[in-house]
């Protein structure tokens, strides 16, 4: 813990940790020592971790990287962080992210972007988003692991950009209680780590039924680590042709082919599959996620949490809402709230929101049919490119940024588990990742396949 605290202090230029909690860390480390001395060694005992700023941590600033939550210190602990603490984890602090987890580059954060520890010459790169601080901190060895959340790719894309491993569990596997909500039907928390084994261990500590989250599944949590045998003989791996997009760089295509060959060499059976509704996933996601966000973010009214704008004499409640929300939310968040309220409005609800929901059901059915045909896991690229430069995607062209999520959003729409594993480097020496998508509730099997790829 002391070594990690030092590393965190020495890495301020990465802007990964946005609130440091050394006193809590040292106190938790002492408690972990005492547990170990008493012969009690829970899974995460004494392991220093970082926590994404989206998780409510009792008495510790939890701002979702937004100005509107300035000064907010929750009275309670999220289920995930309290499970991690029960399992012996040590919290070093809170990690940078895109504001309310909306973004793919960490550049919408009120704290400014986190930086990728990987670089080419002097070009500064994004660690990805929204869990950019988590990815940066793990890749730079500031902590042993970090929590992330993934609504459309926010664990998997930053992992791919930083050479780390992360899993978005099946929807319902991990409790959302105490995690600031973005799009409730898509959000899931998961681990971001150096290795597949670490992800298996940490997922085990984070997962489990929680009566406080009505969407959390009442299922036993298997010993994911024990399932890592590396034996994938006879497993059927699907390669979906719709993910072979025009314009995908050759190095990504090669990475995918190499990964396919590796699984085949390990004894898996490779089959070509079709997921015909894939091309509608991104537009459906960018209707459904903003719709849910606009509703979730209605609670930031300047009364109950965080920051209230300065009011002028004569301002009433409407001015208070307007000024607080105009000052408190950044551009991307405002854009999502506007898109969301538009697609939910009486005149456009059927044309956009309902249509997107129907498309979502078709996307899920594509996966169901593949799994019913015996496919155990699906292999795809995690991202369409390696990490891009900071400032390269402008706020004026949000769709360019949204295209980053083309391979990841399908998994959230279908509620499936998806893991991102680093499997190669591009011509410039930057990490690239592949994605494996699994059957619902079979994270153990999925991690084992990822283990064979690692
Ligand atoms: N990049 C996607 C978005 O901006 C996904 C974000 C996430 O998974 N939290 O919505």
- State the CATH architecture of the domain at 2-227: Alpha-Beta Complex
Order of helices and strands: HEHEHEHEHEEHEHEHHHHEHHEEH
CATH superfamily caption of the domain at 2-227: Amidase signature (AS) domain
Q: The biggest beta sheet, please? A: 11 strands, mixed
How many beta strands in the DSSP annotation?
A: 11
Secondary structure tally, helices: 14
Molecular shape: globular
Helices and strands: which structural class? alpha/beta
Protein name: Glutamyl-tRNA(Gln) amidotransferase subunit A
Subunit structure: Heterotrimer of A, B and C subunits.
Active site: 52, 130, 154
Pfam family, one: Amidase
Describe this structure in words.
- InterPro entries: Amidase (IPR000120), Amidase_CS (IPR020556), Amidase_dom (IPR023631), AS_sf (IPR036928), GatA (IPR004412).
- Its EC number is 6.3.5.7.
- With 454 residues, the protein is an alpha/beta fold.
- Helix content is 36%, strand content 14%.
- It has helices spanning 2-10, 22-37, 79-86, 132-139, 156-162, 196-206, 250-265, 281-296, 317-328, 331-344, 349-372, 398-402, 409-414, 443-453; strands at residues 17-20, 48-52, 90-95, 145-150, 165-168, 188-193, 236-240, 269-273, 377-381, 418-425, 431-438.
- It starts with a helix and ends with a helix.
- Residues 101-104, 130, 150-154, 182, 289, 405 line the site of glutamine.
- Glutamine binds at residues 101-104, 130, 150-154, 182, 289, 405.
